[in-house]
């Protein structure tokens, strides 16, 4: 079973993604901010991480920088899922090593297809 970590502080997004990915046979882990995500990653090695940029405590960019320092997570695909839609935000996300940069609002069905295309 593939593992996915969803990191977002918006409960409605987390709930819909958790439900959909579980239906698609993923083991789902949830974090509400970057700090919580980094704690989960100490014990779990997901195949994919869906990461919001704007979150309390540790934002998505800083979280990704920490993830990239961990050799155990080299195989992990990173998808930014964010409302930050300026060209410089997208460039920053991709230059930090994200595999995809998806803008909110988004299609859950399309996001699942994009995740499955990455792994």
From TrEMBL:
Entry keyword set: DNA-binding, Phosphoprotein, Transcription, Transcription regulation, Two-component regulatory system
Family matches, as PROSITE patterns: RESPONSE_REGULATORY
GO BP terms, alphabetized: phosphorelay signal transduction system
Gene Ontology molecular function terms on file: DNA binding
Domain of life: Bacteria
InterPro entries: Bact_response_regulator, CheY-like_superfamily, Sig_transdc_resp-reg_receiver
Annotated signal peptide: none
Sites of 4-aspartylphosphate modification: 52
Residues covered by the Response regulatory domain: 3-119
Protein name as it appears in the record: Response regulator receiver domain-containing protein
Phylogenetic classification of the source organism: Bacteria, Pseudomonadati, Bacteroidota, Flavobacteriia, Flavobacteriales
């Amino acid at each position: 079973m593939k593992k996915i970590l969803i990191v977002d502080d918006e409960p409605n997004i987390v709930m819909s993604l958790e439900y959909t990915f579980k239906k698609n046979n993923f083991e789902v882990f949830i974090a509400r901010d970057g700090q919580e995500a980094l704690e989960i990653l100490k014990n779990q090695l997901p195949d994919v991480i869906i990461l919001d940029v704007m979150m309390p405590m540790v934002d998505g960019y800083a979280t990704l920088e920490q993830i990239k320092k961990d050799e155990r997570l080299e195989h992990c695909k990173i998808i930014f899922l964010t409302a930050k839609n300026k060209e410089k935000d997208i460039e920053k996300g991709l230059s930090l090593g994200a595999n995809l940069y998806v803008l909110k609002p988004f299609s859950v069905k399309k996001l699942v297809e994009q995740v499955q295309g990455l792994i």
